[in-house]
Specification:
This protein is of the alpha+beta class. It is built from nine helices and 13 strands.
Length: about 300
């Protein structure tokens, strides 16, 4: 290191100034230690500059390092960035119940949230939304608007799954169990989101439409920037329902592996996100029908 560069790294009071990389490493360690959690805002550039004894330009360089590492989100002028939720490794898809919540946290950190979903029931989505809703109620994230559209199978179709292993004539207990779950989970999800209107003054819309077929995959489209897709894997299982034990072919949607396609990842992923959005919009506007969640 030259004498000139040493001088540049010495503060007026004689103490050594931190470099952008050192500041980034310090903040990264706080994130890893849990001192800064997904959804938290960073201190302002002025506060960080005072803490580390550097100019704001040095802080901005450190923040760019963290942004390039995918550790910051909502990076814009005028407000401190937020800590990004850990994304599923692109080469290692995670089960829906594990991978969806952090992706929703990042999506709900935007000012205008848009989520379009194709699913069999809203069970996994209902559970995964608990994390961003918690952060909203704690004041750690605050979207201005939320628009959620959900496509689920119609109650009037003959489902591909779940179905009884053996036909039982007029007995439709398996179908009735699915319908009860679809309606109850959808109602809870709708209630939890719409409650934000009165508690936080947010502009919230939640809409459902009915598909005339059983979707073989689940799809989550988040803010037009990311598509998460998982295959429904059929299995034979038994479950108690009422006074009966149902033997059926069904899926465990929460265990479906989610494959992430992010627009920022390149042309191939961007094309997948765009075409998935077109597919969803076409279904919403053409062959689907109005859906009222009723027991």
């Amino acid at each position: 290191m030259t004498q000139e560069s040493v001088a540049e790294n010495v503060a007026v009071n004689g103490s050594r100034r931190s470099s952008p990389q050192e500041i980034a490493d310090s903040l990264r360690e706080r994130i890893r230690a849990g001192e800064l959690k997904p959804g938290d805002r960073l201190p302002t550039q002025a506060e960080l500059a005072e803490e580390f004894g550097v100019e704001r330009g040095t802080v901005r360089q450190a923040l760019r390092v963290l942004q390039e590492d995918g550790l910051l989100t909502n990076v814009s002028k005028g407000s401190p960035p937020r800590i990004a939720a850990p994304a599923p490794a692109r080469g290692e898809p995670q089960p829906t119940m594990v991978g969806l919540a952090p992706r929703l946290v990042e999506a709900f950190s935007a000012r205008a949230v848009r989520a379009d979903v194709v699913c069999h029931t809203a069970e996994t989505l209902m559970v995964a939304l608990g994390e961003p809703l918690r952060l909203i109620h704690e004041g750690r994230i605050r979207p201005e608007s939320i628009d959620v559209r959900i496509l689920v199978p119609s109650r009037d179709i003959e489902l591909a799954f779940p179905v009884p292993v053996e036909s039982h004539g007029e007995d439709d207990s398996v179908h009735q169990r699915w319908l009860a779950m679809r309606n109850a989970q959808g109602q809870v999800l709708q209630h939890n989101l719409l409650a934000l209107r009165s508690t936080h003054g947010m502009d919230v819309r939640v809409r459902f439409r009915a598909l005339p077929f059983t979707p073989p995959v689940k799809l989550y489209l988040l803010n037009g920037e990311e598509a998460l897709m998982g295959y429904y894997m059929l299995t034979r299982r038994e479950e108690e329902w009422g006074s009966r034990t149902l033997d059926m072919y069904d899926v465990l949607g929460s265990k479906s592996l989610l494959f992430s396609f992010a627009r920022r990842a390149g042309r191939r992923d961007a094309a997948f996100v765009e075409e998935s959005q077109k597919w969803f919009d076409a279904l919403w506007e053409t062959i689907t029908t109005d859906l009222t969640l009723s027991s």
